[in-house]
Amino acid sequence: MIIPYQTAQVSFQRKERVGENGENSEVYVVHDEHLDAELVVKQVKTDGFNEEEYLLEAQLLYRSTHPNVVQVLYACKDAQHIYMAMPYYRNGSLHQVAEAQELTCRQLIRYSIHFLSGLNNIHSKGLLHFDIKPDNILISDSDEALLSDFGFAKNMDEDGFATPEATYRYHLPPESAHTRDFNNSADIYQVGLTLYRLLAGLDSLENQWHGFENGAELAVAQRKETYPDLSQLPLHVPKKLKTIIKKCLKFDPNRRYQSVIDLLNDLSSIEDVGLDWRFSIAGNVQRWESISSDGTTLLVEVVHNGQCTAQKKTAGGAFRRKANLCGANLTPERIHEILMSSDW
């Protein structure tokens, strides 16, 4: 005997639209009447066509159970739309967190280890994500980074390759110029771009992109590995972290990290020195501030001519100038040494 599926009713009230909306989708914070809880619902317009294709994202999310992958709570449909319900995280996306305040390298490494653990999980299950960017990494209420949005995700074939229907144009790997089949190195390239943007500026790729007159110029810069411009990374970024990002962004996919585990191992081994600087620019002054758990504050300010002033204060005290770390006409290399110094 065939037992038919039973249809039940879902009831929610839209409260506000959130995040980036796609061509056929919108995302809302809603109040679910039956759960009496705030959720996030992604609404995808189907008009009754290709419903199985649109439901694939919910199915992939459901199969990718992991503490660092956003979970789908339920999926449903009506005559015109597919709906996917997920937890509502008040902290929003990593893009929103970084937009509100520059991340320290310690925060970046910590969040990266979180979402990369989720990425490693989906790779181990034969999935490629194809849309890794700061908007698609959510920050949970316990301040952990979760990989989300599987709208472009695809199952790998037996050789580890898959073909996405689309991807975010600023995060296209360079090999997309001559192929539509990608392996896990495409996701790793997008990880590199994500880390780069979180350090160099969320709009850095787009600004550089518009500096090219045509696609041929961009392709040459990618081949020479001058795009993205790694010299735009701030001076407080540890050399090992720069090396990791550079390896993720290699033009040749075979020279990138070949697994997320290798990338995680390198991130985890970065020395715990100078990771708490928070960078900002005010007029012609570059400013770095580091506040430790005991309230000790370090401050470095550099004007456009290379004049550097370094100061330190303990909790409740006043700033004192660190003469051995100050100077005029300092090179970027020397400023980096000051930021990484143990002579504070």
TrEMBL record:
Which biological processes are named by the entry's GO terms? DNA damage response
**Gene Ontology cellular component terms for the protein in this record:** cytoplasm
Q: Which organism is it from?
A: Geopseudomonas sagittaria
Listed Pfam families: Pkinase
Lineage top rank: taxon:
Bacteria
Taxonomic lineage of the native organism? Bacteria, Pseudomonadati, Pseudomonadota, Gammaproteobacteria, Pseudomonadales
Start and end residues of each Protein kinase domain: 12-268
Q: Does the keyword Kinase apply?
A: yes
User: What keywords are assigned to this protein?
Assistant: Kinase, Serine/threonine-protein kinase, Transferase
The protein's name is: Serine/threonine protein kinase
PANTHER family xrefs = MITOGEN-ACTIVATED KINASE KINASE KINASE, NUCLEAR RECEPTOR-BINDING PROTEIN-RELATED
Q: Which InterPro entries match?
A: Kinase-like_dom_sf, Prot_kinase_dom, Ser/Thr_kinase_AS, Ser_Thr_kinase
